[in-house]
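A quick word before the example. In earlier lectures we treated sequence and structure as two separate objects. From today on, think of them as two lines of the same record. Here is Cyclic-di-AMP-binding protein CbpB written that way.
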Amino acid sequence: MISTEISDMLMKNKRHFLIPASQVASLNADNSLAHAFLVLTKVRYSRIPVLDHESKFMGELSMPLITEQMLGLDDIDLQRLDGMTVGEVMDREIDTVQDPYDLEEILHLLVDNPFLPVVSQDQDFVGIITRREMMKSLNYLAHNFDKNLNLMDNRD
Ligand code: AMP
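And the structure line, produced from the sequence above:
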């Protein structure tokens, strides 16, 4: 259980945790793998969310999942990507969170995941929480813990 003081302080910065869907690079499950290859190369992320036409979260696609499809027995062929869709090869077994502010769960899951998709009850894609943003908040907390604690004590 996270201490209330720490949780309260982290929550003060909660708007920093969530990168909203509008600012997240994503793919559509119907996109061809050739298109996905170009997008991933351009955005320079090795893994991004996959959505359907109604912006529901479906999974994630990574560069290794694409390059695997390009490999022949003794060559690499980009054209193999034209006839395949993102939905066919994406990873569907993804940890997601519904409440972007459930710190306990988020900190636990970020140990193994560089980012966490946030979804509504109906699977609508809300955004992502990245390890980097959480580290920035924890860094801030570590540097300002005493100061904030004093402020809270003086309030009572
Ligand atoms: P970071 O903690 O900033 O290094 O991000 C961790 C991972 O989250 C990245 O490697 C990407 O897979 C994903 N990510 C971060 N920001 C974005 C974004 N704006 N759009 C799509 N994916 C992102």
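Notice the following. The mean pLDDT is 90. We will return to this example when we discuss secondary structure assignment.
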